[in-house]
């Protein structure tokens, strides 16, 4: 007779082990290895299947599956809708992660208050009065929002049965507690079990569930990595707490692209959707300042104009400092080396500080040329001409390289009133009509000649 087969799995990263150990060798977490049954004792037999056996789902041709009545819920928030891929899919499970205080509860409560659908907002973190006080600031009159302060999943499901909401929001998964598991709320097995219960509920009833998840110091969603595999969509809410802007992005999305991005501004009465992000990211000075350059970047599918500021000064200490905020420091070093070699700038004895304004960070290579322009402008203390912006990558040989979706970048720059954009000579531009001067350059030296004469 076959024996029950078990194996040991790390509850954090899912690695399989032959025997128990105190620490997972893969993810270095302590006390996460648990024995699990991988094969039940009784082997499957053909007989019950031949005799009708257990009921199973039937196979259908994909062309016969009807999705017409599966309309997505419009969340009345264009940024959130877009990041989800066009609204909330019925029966889906969305995980919203973010650092404490970034505005997760604010965002979800604000959405819940404005929805025309019956929404149940379950909070394990705040009291009814606290939620009401926040709600009054966000949206004083709301008819469809129900609040529940409860952490036991079984009791939450009982309330759900009574209220029968269209959408359920859980704030947060780390506060939930299932009776079927011994350990305390926030532990890995609790998080796993509660998520599994909620997923079953979502799939069986077709009610979408939005879960809030906290983030650990290293920026991952607290709890097992498995949590991210279980849910349909993982969203991250990020931004510097000291700045007003918040960015919502999809890290995983079964129902849409992960390239989309939503931008919000935190205000006294909640989060405002920012439909034209370039405006807020570019500082408005009438006189041109040296050391700043505007670049046309892409965040997701969206073109975005951002400002780069550089400060080049004589190094006081032996080794020059290179500091980059919002930009990869290694890439900055590379660009400086290219400048030294190709353009003869002696930056070796200079401190270079680079900052992307607005507290955002960018890894789009298309901002290279703008970084170089800002550094050169600061070094020579000559402001760049007004209305000029950049969109090109720089190679090690000092060549100006093409970037993707150049037409979109050019259009966005034109829309915002820029008069000239520097792009690579090798970039194919499909635009027929435009009101912006497109300066095509092939080498870093060309750019320097054009800008600084
Ligand atoms: P919160 O939603 O509680 O964060 P999380 O749930 O991610 O931990 O966000 C709280 C922060 O937002 C807090 O620092 C105050 C600020 N805030 C505003 O600036 N304006 C507002 O209208 C609200 C409700 C909060
Ligand atoms: Mg909160």
From TrEMBL:
Q: Which GO terms describe its molecular function?
A: ATP binding; ATP-dependent DNA damage sensor activity; damaged DNA binding; hydrolase activity; zinc ion binding
- What is the top-level taxon of the source organism? Bacteria
GO cellular component terms, alphabetically, are:
cytosol
Q: Note the Gene3D superfamilies from the entry.
A: 3.30.230.10, P-loop containing nucleotide triphosphate hydrolases
Function of the protein: Plays a role in repairing double-strand DNA breaks, probably involving stabilizing or processing branched DNA or blocked replication forks. DNA-dependent ATPase involved in processing of recombination intermediates, plays a role in repairing DNA breaks. Stimulates the branch migration of RecA-mediated strand transfer reactions, allowing the 3' invading strand to extend heteroduplex DNA faster. Binds ssDNA in the presence of ADP but not other nucleotides, has ATPase activity that is stimulated by ssDNA and various branched DNA structures, but inhibited by SSB. Does not have RecA's homology-searching function.
Q: Which part of the chain is the RecA family profile domain?
A: 69-215
Q: What are the boundaries of the signal sequence?
A: none
InterPro entries attached to this UniProt entry: AAA+_ATPase, DNA_repair_RadA, P-loop_NTPase, RecA_ATP-bd, Ribosomal_Su5_D2-typ_SF, Ribsml_uS5_D2-typ_fold_subgr, Rubredoxin_2
Q: Where is this motif: RadA KNRFG motif?
A: 252-256
- Stretches the record annotates as Lon-protease-like: 351-453
Name a single GO biological process.
recombinational repair
Q: What is known of its domains?
A: The middle region has homology to RecA with ATPase motifs including the RadA KNRFG motif, while the C-terminus is homologous to Lon protease.
Say if the entry is tagged with keyword Metal-binding: yes
Q: Which UniProt keywords apply?
A: ATP-binding, DNA damage, DNA repair, DNA-binding, Hydrolase, Metal-binding, Nucleotide-binding, Stress response, Zinc, Zinc-finger
Q: Which Pfam families match?
A: AAA_25, ChlI, Zn_ribbon_LapB
Report what the protein is called. DNA repair protein RadA
Organism expressing this protein natively:
Muriicola jejuensis
The family line of this record is: Belongs to the RecA family. RadA subfamily.
Residues annotated for ATP binding in this entry: 98-105
């Amino acid at each position: 007779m076959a024996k029950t087969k078990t194996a040991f799995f790390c509850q954090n990263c899912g690695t399989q082990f032959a025997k128990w150990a105190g620490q997972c060798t893969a993810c270095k977490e302590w006390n996460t290895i648990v024995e699990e049954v991988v094969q039940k004792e009784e082997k499957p037999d053909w007989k019950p299947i031949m005799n009708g056996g257990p009921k199973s789902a039937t196979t259908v041709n994909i062309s016969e599956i009807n999705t017409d009545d599966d309309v997505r819920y419009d969340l009345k928030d264009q940024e959130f809708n877009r990041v989800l891929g066009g609204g909330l899919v019925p029966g889906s499970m969305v995980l919203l992660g973010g650092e404490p205080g970034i505005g997760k509860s604010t965002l979800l409560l604000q959405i819940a208050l404005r929805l025309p659908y019956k929404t149940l907002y379950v909070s394990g973190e705040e009291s009814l009065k606290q939620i009401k006080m926040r709600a009054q600031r966000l949206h004083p009159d709301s008819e469809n929002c129900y609040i529940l302060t409860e952490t036991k999943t079984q009791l939450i499901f009982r309330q759900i049965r009574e209220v029968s909401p269209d959408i359920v929001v859980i704030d947060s998964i780390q506060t939930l507690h299932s009776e079927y598991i011994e350990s305390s709320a926030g532990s890995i097995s609790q998080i796993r079990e509660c998520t599994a219960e909620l997923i079953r509920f979502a799939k069986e009833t077709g009610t979408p569930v939005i879960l809030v998840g906290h983030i650990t110091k290293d920026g991952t969603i607290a709890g097992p990595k498995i949590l991210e595999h279980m849910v349909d969509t993982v969203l991250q809410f990020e931004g510097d707490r000291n700045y007003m802007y918040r960015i919502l992005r999809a890290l995983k999305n079964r129902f849409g692209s992960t390239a989309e991005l939503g931008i919000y501004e935190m205000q006294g009465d909640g989060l405002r959707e920012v439909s034209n992000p370039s405006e807020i990211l570019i500082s408005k000075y009438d006189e041109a300042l040296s050391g700043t350059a505007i670049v046309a970047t892409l965040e997701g599918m969206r073109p975005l104009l951002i400002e780069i500021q550089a400060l080049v000064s004589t190094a006081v200490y032996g080794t020059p400092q290179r500091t980059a905020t919002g930009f990869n420091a290694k890439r900055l070093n590379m660009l400086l080396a290219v400048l030294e070699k190709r353009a003869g700038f002696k930056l070796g004895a200079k401190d270079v500080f680079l900052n992307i304004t607005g507290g955002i960070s960018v890894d789009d290579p298309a901002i290279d040329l703008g970084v170089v322009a800002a550094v050169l402008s600061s070094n020579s203390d000559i402001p760049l001409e007004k209305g000029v912006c950049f969109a090109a990558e720089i190679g090690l040989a000092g060549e100006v390289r093409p970037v993707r979706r150049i037409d979109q970048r050019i259009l966005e720059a034109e829309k915002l009133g820029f008069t000239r954009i520097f792009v690579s000579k090798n970039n194919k531009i499909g635009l027929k009509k435009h009101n912006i001067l497109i300066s095509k350059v092939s080498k870093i030296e060309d750019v320097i000649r054009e800008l600084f004469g």
